[in-house]
Batch of 2 targets.
Target 1
Amino acid sequence: MPADRSQAPGPPTISEVAAEAGVGRATAARTLGGYGYVSPELRERVLSAAEKLGYRANALARSMSTGVSHTLGVIVADIGNPFFAGVVRGICDTSRARGFDTIVLSTYENLEEEIAATNVLIDKRVDGVIIASAAVGRGEVAHIKAAMDRVPVVLVDRAVAALDLDTVVIDNRDAAREAVEMLITAGHRRIGFVWGPPVAKPPATRRELLAQASRNLWTDGERLRGYLDALDDARIPFDPELVMAGRKTEERATAEVARMLAIPDRITAVFCTETDAVTGALRALRAAGLSYPRDIALIGFDDSAWAAVMEPPLTMIAQPVHELGAKAAQVLLDTLEGAEPGRETHTLRSRLIVRASVSAPPAS
Amino acid sequence: MPADRSQAPGPPTISEVAAEAGVGRATAARTLGGYGYVSPELRERVLSAAEKLGYRANALARSMSTGVSHTLGVIVADIGNPFFAGVVRGICDTSRARGFDTIVLSTYENLEEEIAATNVLIDKRVDGVIIASAAVGRGEVAHIKAAMDRVPVVLVDRAVAALDLDTVVIDNRDAAREAVEMLITAGHRRIGFVWGPPVAKPPATRRELLAQASRNLWTDGERLRGYLDALDDARIPFDPELVMAGRKTEERATAEVARMLAIPDRITAVFCTETDAVTGALRALRAAGLSYPRDIALIGFDDSAWAAVMEPPLTMIAQPVHELGAKAAQVLLDTLEGAEPGRETHTLRSRLIVRASVSAPPAS
């Protein structure tokens, strides 16, 4: 039954809108309040009725009830990676201590999901955003720039060349260099790099490899540069055959390490840049009947409880994951509380945890 | 400079409110729009000015621009646990395929954080909520009931006795029973249970143990019941000395397995209910100079890439983590799309992945 507005003394109410639309009051309230689910058809009817009656909600009252959201939004590339789970923990602990809640979205390395996630956070009116972005090129950062127009944004884990804003990362290049130097000091010269840029065609030259790396994630590129730094310092010639090509999956790492073990002048050491690369490499060693550190040396990212209980325990790079998240939250919260937004890159130091997966290469 | 409203032709604008408050237009827009951070003092000034001028935002326009949020909210006990990361992935994949975004909050097993997280999700107007709750007793569920008054809620991973609503879990009791049966079939009768209820004083009797379990997480209690089921079926007497007591940490698991290895009639097998319990147990074995499966058998939750590359590889229970999340999202989305909200418990089956960490006990 349409509401008769001719007798109404004040502005239309939600009940009147509901009656005009022929829906329940709860449905009208949800539609007009913007919370909860309402089917598109009913929503349309409520909005038409509201327009017809000239309904206006009291936004001021709502703003006073919800207030400042005191919520940080976090976008990570893959919450299933224990590295990012640790970073999120650092963000949550710091923001909680300063009175902010934290909501997290995971993009699974998909740029379109990242754009959608950014929109969700702005739509949900978070006070600031921390992103570990999958964006690389200048053409992929429009969503981050749009977010920056609304709220402060801090990058975590991954620098993005096209963006000039506060960034909190670890010393990927130095960490990789130190690990590969340790392998070289132990006597290794044939050192596999797992994994490289995710390309279909393996790079034939060092220049091509670096060009591919620069079109991919900053983190991966830095780790590759650290590997090359260590080779250069020791005057070990670069061999493209020792760099993994293809998609960055555990299965692929297994296949590529198997390939590097099968070539005539085989690898005697392997450097892995991710946990899945480490477990992939270990599968290849077992399949080839090889043991570490006797037959092959191994160092990888990231240290974990498992790496410590392997027999022998693995020498691993430990990233300061909690500190990384805590620092990103601190930089963001300082900005929210009045500090000038910076354009600084904060670099935290990782640590090489020396255990027992590196010894001299087998006598050939 | 206060705005002079006497000449104003229409309703007051944001710019007029800003002028009245003596703040910038952006600050007024953020305050009145309810997004972004504004200091409490400036907010107060803007709201006073808005009230004085009779400012009303057009909520209808906002409702049309933001629309239904098409966002699911997820609260997990610990996003740092790969189990929950896998569940979240299942939720995200399913909700994405059906046009919904997913935002996640992690409570780190803290009930107060869970209450805050629930409020955040309602405040952010998600369309539905999935919770792996830390709540146990009737007195701990008021926040979930309050959420249920606003949006559909589905429980995942953990049933809560005081709540009668759609719940998606795995067959914890059967999974534990099957694993312990495998140990018994291999000849073990002294089987450690790591970990039990997190209590200061170890339980002295079976009844006390079960009473403590019922005051703790449903999942842990179910796994304990499965352990006891298997012992009962084999007529193996229950020995409270073989149940871990104390906080559920890797360090504590190490200390408790060391204790169980040091008693005269020592354990010959250990059943671990969490990944951290497994790595804790493995540390204790190494410290005691024992190898599995020769000196001791081991089965644990949850299977992982690491468990598969251990030498020997570990026999583990694989929970259907992705399916668990996907099912919870499906049940919630079906409700949002008009299905009657159920009060059903959906139980998914786990799998025992048999590898090489179980053999007969050492001859005594």
Target 2
Amino acid sequence: MSEVYALRRARLRDRCKAGGSQSALISRPANVRYLAGTAPRGAVLLLGKTDDLLLCPGPPEDRPAEGRPDETLRVQTLPGTAGDPAVAAADLAEGQRADTLAVEEHHLTVARHREIRSVVPRLRLTDLGSAVEQLRVVKDEEEISCLRIGAEIADQALGELLESILVGRTERHLALELERRLVDHGADGPAFPTSVATGPNAGRRAHRPTDRRVEEGDFLSVCLGAAYRGYRCEIGRTFVIGTSPADWQIELYDLVFAAQRAGREALVPGAACRDVDRAARQVLDSAGYAEGLPALTGHGVGLEIDEDPQLAPSAMGKLDACVPVTVEPGVHLPGRGGVRIDDTLVVRPEADGGPELLTITTKELLAL
Amino acid sequence: MSEVYALRRARLRDRCKAGGSQSALISRPANVRYLAGTAPRGAVLLLGKTDDLLLCPGPPEDRPAEGRPDETLRVQTLPGTAGDPAVAAADLAEGQRADTLAVEEHHLTVARHREIRSVVPRLRLTDLGSAVEQLRVVKDEEEISCLRIGAEIADQALGELLESILVGRTERHLALELERRLVDHGADGPAFPTSVATGPNAGRRAHRPTDRRVEEGDFLSVCLGAAYRGYRCEIGRTFVIGTSPADWQIELYDLVFAAQRAGREALVPGAACRDVDRAARQVLDSAGYAEGLPALTGHGVGLEIDEDPQLAPSAMGKLDACVPVTVEPGVHLPGRGGVRIDDTLVVRPEADGGPELLTITTKELLAL
């Protein structure tokens, strides 16, 4: 695995050189993990002119981290009194006779930036921008395999919940139960706070579970995901509680299902992100739900649950093969509830069978 | 409750004026919540020259938040295409004819700061520093009451766990079980990831639970906390599994207990933070455990689990009454395990009975 990280750093180094920077300071945790194999809290990665270094604030015992540092990487733990790792890294960059250091201006704070400038005034600070985030968009098969395992775990946890009795239980308890099952099946933990929404709450994106209890006739929408070796996937489903759904429930479900399918079917390499969004969104729009739709109908996943690309009306860029994304349109009717359907898929060329669905729980409208 | 928030903003406004700023932009989420009553994800607070405003990125449904905005505060939700709330806030500040805007340079990124400067080039940006964090250090009785309830919840969850059978269960399962119990007893959720550490892991600060199972003869150390109305407390205890602890376990426990008691007893209004740290630390130092001690022996708690003040050798400043802090020394012997004992207390004058212990679970060495 070490080779993977060294190769990623080599690619980033090429980008830096092309941008005129001799060294780079990576501070955003998911970016550090992507390039170093681990990201202890507060650690930064120096992509040096002569030598790469992971700088961790000490003592290490206070900073438990997932993953292991790549073996080809030098790791240095700073004593508690040594100040900030980012400042120490800049100091080291200057020691390696770099004259420019690219920093992640979208992550580094103004205060830290100022501190670095005062410690190494001769080092020219440039902006690395989202160079690492861009490298992270297209996944290798190892990364996709972690997402696939995470999706299997989420499918299992959800499947078990559906077999249990739901009426009378609170949103909070169902969410906790799902999270326990994720860990039971081998997840590092939930990929994000599990959302369980019943009745009038159903269909709300990222709804925080409340003490409301599941009732007969409710819509029940659930959104969960597993983190597996750092990779985060997402699945969302909506069910009906009781013997038979009401007509409005069936209609709304069919509509959101059609929108979600349109989004999934638009996932081809080379498709514009905004066109994928439009494919899903226009189904809801033309049924009269233009108001109150979420800002995006999907997004990339990986080491973070919400990565590039964004599937949104104003999104730029096109999809590549091997990019995992969610497709998750939904409609929420205030006071009545609603429907969300959310899958994680990997963009694949048609020759390889088209988009690979990672979250395989049925999307039929189940009455539980 | 609205008055509380308006009063806090008035205090901050006084500080800003004293520092020469006519308006301030609060972006750090816990600071926004402290001043506005809620902090939807991505929201910022403008403390304007004429008018205060909470700016939230839209649509609101995508941004569930705890708490409610203070009724005296104007809330504005930006459409998804309106750009960043911090930039919009700066624009509004200029519209209110402010000529200076104080920003939280320790939170605002370099990229956002640059964007603000380009949108409102005539507005002079200054540094608010940690003015809000400083206001947050001393708690009012309402805040302390939330911490007290959170501590009761954590005590209950821990007490119930101790009554169950532990041998053979994994660290991960015990941690999840504790988190479920926290929610059962009314917590918003865990205050931080619950730590359960057995055998050689015991006594490690912020240990991430693994699949190791509890065995006879183990030390078991547990650290958990409840979030209640946004306020986060912390309790840590160490137990022995089996009928009778080994001599080295009793000795180590007594030592850490003595250090923790020394720290607690040093909590008086006016005490230097470093002296409280020293009181606890020197007990461990003089027993030969100077190496490998954690960087701090305690810290403030409140809307964040790790706030000012820090109880550490290099800490500046003194304790005031009504400041809640943890006292949490520990010793970890690599390969053997160790002991941590952690309480949340509120600094109180001796006339009021001295430090108020919020986490009341026994600190006897229980053999479970």
